[in-house]
Each structure stands twice: as structure tokens, then as C-alpha cells.
Amino acid sequence: MKNYPISLLETIRARSIVSQYLKPTQLIRYEALSRILNANVFIKHENHHPTGSFKIRGGVNLMAHLKRQGISGVITFSTGNHGLSIATAAKWAGLSAVVVVPERNNPAKNRKIRETGAELIEAGKSFEEASQTVERLCAERGLYYAHPADEPHLINGVGTEFLEILEDAPDIDVMIVPLGGGSEAAAAITVLKTIRPHIDIIAVQAQNSSAAYRSWKAHAISSAENTTFAGGFATGKAYETTFNIYKDGLRDFVLLSEEEIYQSIGLAHYYTQQLVEGAGSSTLMAAFKLQEFLKGKTIVLQMSGCNASIEEIERAMTYSTFREGWRSVECRL
After folding, report:
1. Are residues 194 and 306 in the same domain?
2. Total domains, the chain
3. 115, 137, 182, 265: which has the fewest Cβ within 10 Å?
4. HSE on the CB side for 146, CA within 13 Å?
5. pLDDT tens digits, one per residue of 280-304
6. What is the pTM (predicted TM-score) of this model?
7. According to its UniProt record, which cofactors does this protein need (predicted)?
8. Both 129 and 180 in a single domain?
9. Model confidence over 43-78: pLDDT tens digits?
10. What's residue 329's pLDDT?
């Protein structure tokens, strides 16, 4: 199944599966953001899914295919949103699930994974160390290894969000997405560039976990320090399947400091009244940093997830972006 095609056609087929479980998420135009950025600004609210993130689309599509193959159980590693997607979709499909997370992982995400009935295992100090435990348990238990990036059915499932975007905003000029493992960037490129080749796709990543950015710049897969607090960005290397799509498909890449990621949580709250996680809010800060390029264009910012911990929200609330929005970051950009 790892060699299954990733394409617009497969995304359209995935939609018939995903739509059985999930409703389309809202694409909302924000007047204040549009005025400040001198652009036509929409946000795609993937944070409104039952699991609080876009990844459930891929999980649903993958589980449907696994069930047809007669597979009864899956295992994966995650910092949270992917694991919650696999655990939830497996439950809906009647499959068992094991999710391995790093030690000291986001407790809010751990709790939600356990609530699905999946087995949660904490192992290793990082995303990559957690993957080593998966490789061992996969062989011992005979489970299907649902990799968070190198899994075509996940990417085709995630691509359904971009079909929805084009239906609601066919004249989009720019799409900005967070990039960790790369499934969303790969899906955006596969769908948007096939239907509207002129659309510019821009990725955002944490400066403290910049493996994908470094790989994109070098045009070769590489690794990097992985110390960001933002779980959606917390990968220490790029992955072959997604990298081979985004290495040539991105117009640009924005890196954010840890402070800027916390500020982006504040911007999301101030302008959209949403409490979202670091990676999920990062596209707003990226848009402010790219305001000259975005001027006069129709842009969609992807709000990828809302599963922030209480500690992350509390710290973000200390930044003035929670109270003053754009004015608190204007001088920085």
C-alpha cells in the first residue's frame, strides 16, 4: 500500500470515503485580517473536525482501505494529531490501534488518544525515537505500520480539504500551510497545482525544527535539531514520500521562532476567536511576515489544529497579541 498512487483522481475517490464520516469544514473570510494585510483573507478551519485537526481526513481514508484488505490492527508514532487521527478512525472502522508518543508529550493529546480506546505507549525523547519503538512492536504484534508521512492513503485523504477550498474560493492566488511531516503540503500541491497551476503554495515551519525547510533549500532530504514546543512541527527529518512532492511544488518557506509561534496563537485568538495550537495558528504569523507579497491577492490560511495544552495557551496569553492583535507585531515584520 505504500506504493499506492498520490493523485487528484485518488483524492476525488478518497472524498467519497471521507464524506461518510466528516462534514466539510468552514472557509471563512475575515474582514479585519483582509483590511490589515491589504488582501482577501480566508481561513480554512480544519480545527473544527471532531479530532481538532486536519489529519482525521487521512486517517479515515487509510482505515477504509485497511479494512478492505482484512487488516485488523494498526500502529503508529506521533506527537498527537496524527496519532489521534489513527486512533479515532480505527475505532470508527472497528480496528485496534496502538499509538507511540514521545515521553513528556502534550498531555491534552495523550488524553484524547486514550479516550478513543487505543493503546498509548510513551517511549523515547523525540518523534524519531518514538518511531524506533513502533518498528519493534510492529514486527512483534503483526500490526500495520501507519507512517505519519510515507503513507499515500493519508495524503489522498488530506487532499479532500483542498477540493473543498476550490469549491468555496475558486479564485485563490496563495495557499499557506504548516509543514511538519509534510502530508498537508504534499496534498495541497497534488490537488491545487493540478487544478490551478498558478496558485502559489507557501509552507511554514518552526525554526527550532526545520528539517523540511533545510531539505527544501538543499533539494535533498536532511535532518535538523528538533526542539520546538509546537507538536505539529516537531520532526527532526524530512520524509521521502512527501519531500518528493513539496521539493519542487512550494513557492516559498517561512520559518518562525518559538516566540513568534506563541504570538501566532494570540493572533488567532484576537482575529478569529479560536484557541488553537502553535502549528495550527502559524499561518497567520506567516501572512503578516509576507504582507508585501500577499498584497491584493486572495489567500487561504490553513488553521490545521486546536489541540494545544493548557500550559501552551497560558504562556501564549502572556503575549500582547491576545489583547492587541496586529499592533503588537507590526514593528517586527
Report:
1. yes
2. 2
3. 115
4. 35
5. 999 999 999 999 999 999 999 999 9
6. 0.93
7. pyridoxal 5'-phosphate
8. no
9. 999 999 999 999 999 999 999 999 999 999 999 988
10. 56
Q: Rounded to an integer, what distance in angstroms lies between the CA atom of residue 147 and that of residue 124?
A: 17
- Cα separation, 275 vs 306, whole angstroms: 6
258 and 301 co-located in one domain: yes
Cell numbers placing 144: 500495520
Assess contact for 193 and 167: CB atoms under 8 A: no
Q: Which residue reads 488553537 in cell numbers?
A: 276
Q: What CATH number has the domain bearing residue 118?
A: 3.40.50.1100
**Are 84 and 170 in the same domain?**
no
Rounded to an integer, what distance in angstroms lies between the CA atom of residue 108 and that of residue 101? 12
Please indicate whether residue 126 or residue 223 has the higher confidence score (pLDDT).
223
C-alpha span between 221 and 149 (Å, rounded): 14
Q: Which one is predicted more confidently, 11 or 106?
A: 11
Cβ proximity of 56 and 34 under 8 Å: no
Q: What is the dihedral of CA 255, 275, 232, 52, to 10 degrees?
A: -150
CA gap 123, 115 in Å, rounded: 19
Residue 65 one-letter amino acid? H
Give the pLDDT confidence score for residue 332 in this predicted structure: 36
